[in-house]
Amino acid sequence: MSDTKSNAMWGGRFAAGPDAIMEAINASIGFDRRLARQDIDGSRAHAAMLAQQGILSSKDAEAIREGLLTVLSEIETGQFAFSAALEDIHMNVEARLKELIGEPAGRLHTGRSRNDQVATDFKLWVRDQLDAADAGLLALLRALLAQAEAGADWVMPGFTHLQTAQPVTWGHHMMAYVEMFARDRGRMQDARARMNECPLGAAALAGTSFPLDRDATAQTLGFDRPAANSLDAVSDRDFALEFLAAASICAMHLSRMAEELVIWSSAQFRFVTLSDRFSTGSSIMPQKKNPDAAELIRAKIGRIVGANVALLTVMKGLPLAYSKDMQEDKEQVFDAADTLMLALAAMEGMVRDMTANRASLEDAAASGFSTATDLADWLVRELNLPFRDAHHVTGTLVAMAEAKGCDLPDLSLAEMQSVHGAIRADVFEVLGVHNSVASRTSYGGTAPSQVRAQVARWKERLG
Ligand code: ARG
């Protein structure tokens, strides 16, 4: 809806309305309508404070506060007619309030600017996203813990360079992701604690001559305190950047895990079976069951990191205080937040539903000379060889097994002794994958006893 007259909110000095192109580049209502609830919460808090401070009559404040609730319900029920001529959510709401309650609506903006208003609205919105990400991560942690607990002693190959390295336990692998996603949670919580200062009352940039009670509005809106510098309060978007940075790292973790699920669910690996609920079919190849959710999670990071880079680029080089450049903050953050929440929910569902194929894991764990390090360690421990010599002896035995086309435990004692005469029959005990993992009891190691201890510790921590 375009208006040919000058803007009702700021058009006093304007003789003509904006060009259609100007309106198109200037308006943010197409996306910042998502801030409606936060905008109305902020305005209601501001009006109540103005009345408390005697800046507004309590009658006017009451009319404003009630009128704003009507506006909110119109928006939430889809009855609200948004206007591009009114630029953004702040002016759309205020204009409708004026239609509803008349003159007092014009008093709401006392001691306030759209600059502190939008900073407050957006902070409230981002704060909700930090909480939602925290909840999504908690659900994912619980799903991972259930997998880890069920398979604390299932052996699988551990990889470096995606080459078989040493046997590990399924539970240990799941718990690695618990550590990663728990750090993501910590980052969301840290960001929330740091950002929780209220910009409202900073006004345009310099503060205001009205005797505002900024502590009161901060408290009403659930902030810990008012932001201490009015210039900073209106020009700060660190809170959005910290969310995007934490979201980027989290998305990177999700992408790594998704990649493993794609590999593991292939016919060549068969480590896991993904549920039908989180797989798709092929329109031409009837046998296919594709891990599309995992692939999409693997890819979603592009949007999130893209948003992070985009907003950093918007903010760099901006002089204090507010510049309209900052209106470009919202779409990026909205998209990144939607993407992250969806990816978290999809990963949680996939992890909860997936079945680890214990026999395939164990078969794979035993192949690829995965217990060669155990053999070298045995030579050090039992025969007192220097580790470098033990490494060499073991390498020779691996080459021998490779030439014979067998695994290390399939070599005979005589063959072993042909490489080092002192090797005894009890060496075979350390060549089994179960013994291998059971021996790695160092703190944080892969032994089932360690995994169970870590699962118990995390369960207690998460409550
Ligand atoms: N729509 C604007 C934004 O998102 C609101 C603030 C406008 N402030 C101004 N001084 N023009 O940034």
Structure description:
The protein has 463 residues and is mainly alpha-helical. 61% of the residues lie in helices and 5% in strands. The protein has 19 helices and six strands. It has helices at 20-26, 29-32, 36-52, 58-76, 89-101, 114-150, 170-195, 214-220, 230-235, 238-264, 292-315, 329-353, 358-366, 372-383, 387-404, 413-419, 427-430, 433-439, 448-462; strands spanning 155-160, 163-169, 197-198, 225-226, 272-273, 355-356. Strands 1-2 form a two-stranded antiparallel sheet. Strands 3-4 form a two-stranded parallel ribbon. Helix 3 packs antiparallel against helix 4 (58-76) and helix 10 (238-264) runs antiparallel to helix 11 (292-315). The longest helix has 37 residues, at 114-150. The radius of gyration is 31 Å and the shape is elongated. It starts with 19 loop residues before the first helix and ends with a helix. The model has no long low-confidence stretch (mean pLDDT 96). The structure holds arginine.
What oligomeric state best describes the polypeptide chains here? single chain
Calculate the mean pLDDT score and round it.
96
Separate helix tally: 19
For the termini, the CA-CA separation is: 52 Å
Bound molecules: arginine
**Biggest sheet record:** 2 strands, antiparallel
Would you list the SSEs in sequence order as H and E?
HHHHHHEEHEHEHHEHHEHHHHHHH
Shape: elongated
- Overall number of strands: 6
Trace the largest sheet across and list its strands. Answer: 1-2
What structural class should be given to the helix and strand makeup? mainly alpha
Q: What fraction, in percent, of the residue positions are helical?
A: 55-70%
Query: What is the CA-based Rg, rounded?
Result: 31 Å
Low-pLDDT stretches: none
* Percentage beta strand: under 5%
